[in-house]
Structure formats: C-alpha cells, structure tokens
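Posting this for the archive.
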Amino acid sequence: MNRLKDLREEHDLLQKDIAKYLNMSQNGYSYYETEGLDIPTSILKKLARYYNTSIDYLLYLTDKREPYPKSIIDEENM
C-alpha cells in the first residue's frame, strides 16, 4: 500500500506529472513512491497542498484525509 501512488492514480496522473509539479525528475519522484528515499519536508508540504490532505495522512500517521486548517504563518509562505 502506497498513499502517494494511490493519490496520484486517483487523480489520473503519471509520475512524470507529479515530478514536473515538484520540479524534479520522474526517476527521483519514483523513489518517494517506492520509499527508496525519505521525502524532504518541503516536498511533503507541496504534496499535501496539491492533494488537499495533511502530511500526517501522507506519512500514515492518520487515516483522515482532510487537511488541517491553515496557519497564519503557512498562508504567508504560499
């Protein structure tokens, strides 16, 4: 079970589509899906925003897909 892959496929996207959004190679992104590399915080934030979910959901810390309310600090950095 892989949440990143599941979310990507639910949105009918290819790895290259997400890699382009993240400004990285498809090969690099594939390591994230196969858990070959730890995902940097900045990438986790982008993925959580893109899929409208929380980082906790992406990391299997919760099964709730809803994002948390945005913080004032986060809104300033968007």
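The helical segments are 3-10, 15-22, 26-33, 41-51, 55-58, 72-76. The mean pLDDT is 89.
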